[in-house]
Amino acid sequence: MARLRRRLASSNNALARALGDLLSSSRLDADVWDDFEATLIGSDLGVGPTTELVDNLRRELAIDGVDDPARAGRVLHAELVKLVDPSLDRALNDTGADGLPAVVLVVGVNGTGKTTTVGKLARVLVAEGKTVLLGAADTFRAAAADQLQTWGDRVGVDTIRGAEGADPASVAFEAVNAGVERGVDVVLIDTAGRLHNKANLMDELGKIRRVISRRAPVTECLLLLDATTGQNGLVQARVFNDVTDVTGIVLSKLDGSAKGGIVVQVQRELGVPVKFIGLGEGVDDLAPFTAEGFVDGLLG
Ligand code: GDP
Known about the structure:
Elements: H1 2-10, H2 14-24, H3 30-42, H4 47-60, H5 69-83, E1 102-107, H6 114-127, E2 132-137, H7 144-155, E3 158-161, H8 168-182, E4 186-191, H9 198-212, E5 220-226, H10 231-243, E6 248-252, H11 262-270, E7 274-278, E8 286-288, H12 291-298
Parallel strand pairs: 1-4, 1-5, 2-3, 2-4, 5-6, 6-7
Antiparallel strand pairs: 7-8
Subunit structure: Part of the signal recognition particle protein translocation system, which is composed of SRP and FtsY.
Membrane topology: Peripheral membrane protein
Protein name: Signal recognition particle receptor FtsY
C-alpha cells in the first residue's frame, strides 16, 4: 500500500495524484473530499458517477481518516471497477449469420482514428486465424482509400475500394459482396465521418446499412471516439447512437494525456460497451477494454 501511495503521489496523472492525496490524508475532511471530487470531474468522469463514487467511498472509508490504507486502496479499486460496469459484454461480434461473413461497420467523426483502427483490428483478427477483407467506404477524402489500403498491405489483407467520389454505399456493398464470394470471416468497413449535418449522416449510414444488408447483415457497428476530446466525445456518441445502432465503442488515443473518464459517461448514458482502446499509431496498438485495466490506467 505504501508503494501504491508513492506511485500515485509521483504520477503525472492528476487523478492518480488526487487518489494518492486522499489515501495519505490523515484526516478526510471536507476539503480533501472536495479536491478529490473536483479532480474526478476534471477527468471527464461526469458529475453523476463522481458523486456516486465519492458517496460510496465516504460511506466505506473511515469517516475521519483512512484508518486502514490497504483496505482503502481495495475499496477504491472496487468502486472504480463498478463504475465501468464489468458485466457488459465486450466481445467483438465477429461471427456472421448462416455462413456469411461478419460485417463490422466502423463509424465516427473524421480524425478520431477509424482508418487506423480498421487496420489494427484486421491485425487482431488475422492473428486469431480469421480471414479478413477491408472496404474503403470513405470515398470523400482523396487519401482515405490509399491510407486504408496501406494498412491492408501491412496486415496482409485485401482492400476493396471505389473511385474517388463514388457512392459510399456501393463501395460498402462491393466489399461485402466480395467477402461473401470469397468466403471470408470478417469484412471491416471504414466509413466517412462527415458530421456537418445529422440528417445527412443518418441518410448516409442508413443507406450503407440498407444496401449492405441485401448481401449480409451488419453484425457490429463500432463508434470511434477520440479520448483527447473529452466531453465532445459524449456529444458525438449521442449523435451517432441516435442516427445508427451503435453496438460498441473504440476509445482511441488513450496513450496521450487523455482523460479516459469519458468511458464511464458514455457507457452509462448509452448503455453501449467500450470494446477496444487505442494506445498508439502502430499496428499492435489496439487492446481489448477491461474494467480492471481501465482502473489501473486511472490510478496511473
Ligand atoms: P479517421 O479520419 O477517423 O479515419 O482517423 P485516422 O485513422 O486517419 O487517424 C487520425 C490520426 O490519429 C492519425 O494520425 C492516426 O495515426 C492517429 N491515431 C489513431 N488512433 C490513435 C491512437 O490510439 N493513438 C494515437 N496516439 N494516435 C492515433
